[in-house]
Structures are given as C-alpha cells and as structure tokens.
Amino acid sequence: MRLTGANSVMRLSGVLALTAALVGGPVSAHAYASDFTVPPVDPQHWQNQYDMTWADWKDIPGTNWNDPNGRPGERGLRIALVAVDFPDQPFVITQPKRSDPFGNPQIDPIQRADVPRFYHDFYLVPNEYNHGRTIHEYWMEQSRGRLGVEKMDTFGAYRLPRNLFEYGLNEFGQAGACPNGFTCNGNLDRDADTVWQADLAVRGIPCPDSKCGYNVVLRVYAGYDETSIWQEFGEMRFDSKEDIPDDWGPPASDTALPNWAPTRYVEWTSWRAAAQQWGQSSIRQAESSGTITHEMGHYFFDIGDNNNNPFSDRQNPPGPFHRVGSAPWDMMDRGSFNGPGGHHMRWVIPPNMGGWSPAGLMLRNRIHAGIVPAANVLEVSREALAGTGLVVATVTARAVDPGPDGTSGIKVRLDGPGRPDRTPDCDIGTDPFCHGNTGWDHYTLEVVDRMGFDSFTPDHGVIIAKNKTRESNTCGYNCFDWVIDANPGDIGLVDFRRPDGTPVMASIADHRQLNDAAFHAGLNSGSAYEWVDEPNRLHFYVIDVRRDAGGVLSYTLAVRSLDGSGPQRRGVRLGRPEVSGRPGGVALCTFPLTNTGQSGATPVDDVYRLSVSSRGRGWTAVLDNALATAAAGHTVAVPVYVSPAPGAAREATVTLTARSESDPAATRSLACTVGRRDTNGQ
Length: 682
Hints:
- By secondary structure, the chain is mainly beta.
- The chain folds into 3 domains: 17-39 and 565-679, Sandwich (Immunoglobulin-like), CATH 2.60.40.10; 62-320 and 348-363, no CATH class; 372-561, no CATH class.
- It has helices spanning 30-33, 115-124, 135-143, 164-168, 188-202, 271-274, 292-301, 363-369, 382-388; strands at residues 17-22, 26-27, 75-85, 147-159, 216-221, 260-261, 269-270, 284-286, 377-381, 391-396, 409-413, 440-448, 461-473, 478-483, 494-497, 503-505, 530-533, 538-547, 553-561, 572-574, 578-582, 586-595, 606-615, 619-623, 627-630, 635-644, 651-660, 667-675.
- Strands 1, 2, 20, 21, 22, 24 and 26 form a 7-stranded antiparallel beta sheet that branches. Strands 9-11-12-13-14 form a 5-stranded mixed beta sheet.
- The chain is elongated.
- The two termini are 51 Å apart.
- Residues 1-34 have low confidence and may be disordered.
- Residues 404-425 are annotated as: Disordered.
- It comes from Actinophytocola oryzae.
C-alpha cells in the first residue's frame, strides 16, 4: 500500500511535560525543579462562542471565495428570493432603529420596496451589513470553487393574506394559543408561492413548474424565526410563564389566552415568540434567520440534521439527555449556530451575529455531498491494516485546498466479518452517552483550524469521528456523525442566568460540551494525543503539528490495527545525542532517531513511543512529545530538555527510550550526559 501523504521527516513539536528526576531511583520531578516547565507548542485554547467577535474571523490564505463575480466550476444554484410580509407584521428592517419589542432592527430603516434587494445583497454581496460574508462564499469554500450561487432573482415585496401568527401557531402543538376569531392553520410556503406566481402571470413571465424554473424558492418573510428567539425571549427573559407581561402576550382583544404558548422544545415561551414561524428546509427564512446555508445543506445534498434536543428535560424529564453528535464542528449540527456571540445572538436583524458564520462540513458530509476529491481522502480498511501495518499521513486543515497530492482527511472503513461497529450495546433510554450500535461503518480524521467559516469553531485541532454512510435514529435523534470527545467530562459552562440571577448550566446534551473535543499533538496540551477503540481494534495517533510560512495548519496522524502490524521487520536506532544550551538554565539533548525497519518494496512508516529518565541529584528531564514517526531508513530528531534545580549535582545522565508501536520488541535506549556547563553556566 502506498501511504499517501506520509511524512518522511518529523518536525519537532508537541508540548512539554515533566517526566522523571532520579536520585539513585525514581522521585517526584517536582522534588528539585518544581518551576521547570516548557510552554506547550500545541496547547488547547478552546473559546466559548459567547466571547467571540468579528475580530476572530481569519481569511484563508490565497483565497477570495466571497468574490460575487466568482463562478462555480461545476454547479451554480439558481435561486428565486420571494419576500413577503403580513397584515400584523411589516418587515422589521423597515422600522425605526431598535424600535420593535425585540430591540431590532440594528440599522437605520430601508424602504419596503427595497427589502428584496437588501436581502439579495445581504446573502450574496460582501457589504457592511454582512461583514463581508456570503452564502455564495460558504459553498465555494466548502467545495473548493465547484459549487456556489450562480443567480438569485428577487421578487416582491408581497403582502400575504393572513396574519403572521396564523402561520406561526401552526406547529408544535400551538393551536390552542390561536386568538379567538382566527384560524391558525396557515401554510406560508403555499401562500407565498401563490402570490409570487400570480405576479409572474400578470407580468407574462413563464412558470413551467412549481419552482418556475429555479433550483429553489427562498421565501424571506417578515419577522422572526422562532428558533432564534424562543429561549432568549422566553425562559431567559422571564422567570416563569406567569411572569410574562401583556405586551408579550396575544392581541388585547383576546383576554382568555395566557401570555405564554408552547414551543418546540419546552413547555412555554412568550406568546409573541411562539407566534413566529419556524424556519425549515423548504426553504423559508425569517429576517432573523442566519441558517440559510444549513437549510441549503438539507435541500441540495439531502443531508439531515445531526443535532439533538438539549432542552426538553429541563421542564419534563421523562428520560436522559442525549449527548450531541458533532455540535460546533459541523454545519449540519449546532455548528450552524456558530458566529460572533454564539447561539444566543441569533435574534438580531439583520442576522449577522450567531449563525452567520456556520462551521464547515465534516469530512463525512463533504464525501456524501461529493465536494471533496477522492484523491484528497486517504481511505483505509480496518481489516487490511492488520496485514499492511499502520498508516501515517499529513492532513491539512479542512478549510484549505491541499492541492491534488495533499490530504484533507483519513477515512477508516469498519469492514470485516460481523457488524461494522463492534462496540458493546448500550441503552439510549438510560445512557446519555450512548450513540446506539447500528449504522456506524467508518471513522474519519480531519483537521480544523480557525479560519474561513471555521473561524468561529471553538478550537483548532484534530477531530476524530465515527460515522454512518446512511442516516438513522440510534442516538435518540437522527444522527450520522459522532465526534470522539478528547475531554468527555462535563465542560461546566453556564448557559444563561435567569432574570433573578439563577445560573442555568449547559446540560450534558449541550452542543458546547464538545467545545474541547479536539485532539492535540504532544504532552500536556490540555487535551489527548491518541484514541484507542478496543472493540473495533483501532489505535489513532496525533503525532505532530505544523503551521507553514503561509499560516496553513497540518497534523501528522496515524492509524494502527490492534490485531497485527504486517510482515515487515520493525526496528529503531538512536544515534549520538547533541548537547546544547537553552535560555533559562536549560540544556537540550537532541537524539537522532532512525527507523531501521526493513521496507522491502514498500515504504514502512512506524510510530515510536518515547520516554525519558534522568539520574543525578536535582536534575529534571522532560520530553515535548510522547510520540515520533519516521519512514523506513529516515531519521528524525527527538529533543529532551534537562534542567538542574539550585544545589543540583554537577552532572546528570539522561536516558531516552524509543519503542516501536508496531513491535514493542523493537526498543532502544541511549544515554546523554549533561553538566551545569551545558545550561549556559546557570
């Protein structure tokens, strides 16, 4: 097997950790040098979406995907934008600045006749309102220029025949909140299409089918998407449903109705919030909706929602919460809510905060959508790995085109006899971390960096995910991406504070529980650098990290079978170390490590586990990485950092041990002598 993208030389990186200080035997490393640490070179720095601003946006080097004149190379989408308002709800964007009950619009008003063009430009043309970000740019970035918006024609503004609440109270058991004298069974899509097509007929414009020749009809409606306000103007604003005042309730003419109404996830929100329509992939978008890219993912690629319900059990807890699938790392999950301020900032109009910069698509979804070249995916077989030995590849951040010979990710098929996923059965009715055990058939490994539409993901790093080729409901919801959480403990975030100041913690099902899920290279990063799936007999490694001169991030990754390492002879040699001084009273022993395994006709990479010990009173030795990799016949450098405490012996002997992960019998150790003179005289 040719190991596409394998590194032949490992760049020294990782993070530094205390290992041992020996004085005639093991003692605590902190006994003599408690202040001896070296800063990590790949630290985990996850950030809460609440704290993000547009200053966090970072351009992808060498790209200009938001050029409105840039044409997609393979598929251009033709969209009809139909703008509609209601007798009881004018376009918010036409009202005086911050004049409506929700505090919108955020900009000076525009004329009603200009609304369709305003939203056309908001979606497609970089400007001051959208902070330069467009839906055309999103799809061009995800597809490397293959897919985008070719054309968006505007129609309207049209006035629909019924009030907004007659459409908005037509879902999620809300009919009982319909005011007396009205019937809340409106179909917004149908009525919008009816007035639009009637207008086309009057103007003599042919309409050969239900979409009048367009790929999709985008219905932009006045008011709010209920998904963007039900919580913010419900339980976050009012301590209880009885506390909701009349100005957030139904029309004054109906005194029998309460000021609250049911909503999708929980028992109640304010009536005014519940009366709004919920955006859907039909496609319809309120003025507050920033999730059009998510809805387009449903519509154009038949990719479903991968998100759970983290809310309902707060009011009625009949069963456990269910952990989220891919959360902030994927646009088809709650990554559709990424953007400055996160998901609680999706109520602003125009919708240029939370939700306006959704995460990129996970590798599974880009494969499903056909927008990642097969040549950029290293695909391996679980069964074959036992016979061929481990694979090593350099994987480039997913926002960046790695070129025809580069690697955007690794896919590991769970093939072989029996069911694909051999994880023991669990019960989603009792275990909130159970993803079910049917349908999972492959792993993916990919690199996320905070640039482009991944600028508002919570961290950079390596995302390991178990995936399904076909979607199914095994997680307590429809799921197909299951991110392996490098830090599975409760992240301990306050979701919001009630009006009385009571904190409401993010539940175990909250999407931000995966904010710290990325794997990082090296020791003491705050995250993990390897993952072992014992039932599926796989071992995943994050070996090295590199950022090139242009700012592009890549990681060296490896995958190994636990059932075999191939027929190749494995070996390792450590060469004479070089001793040098470093600032701060630190000496450096640099050991050449050579892969002496026999490759035959096929290059044989290997991964080596490193450890270090020291002998000498008051000396401490640390590694910056527990792993190294080298192709057969190639040499890499392994640094060991050594430091004396005050009063330490004049010299220390430092021993490095390297053990092949493929064959533990292939182990070598070598010593390095370090004196005070090697620490710049300190």
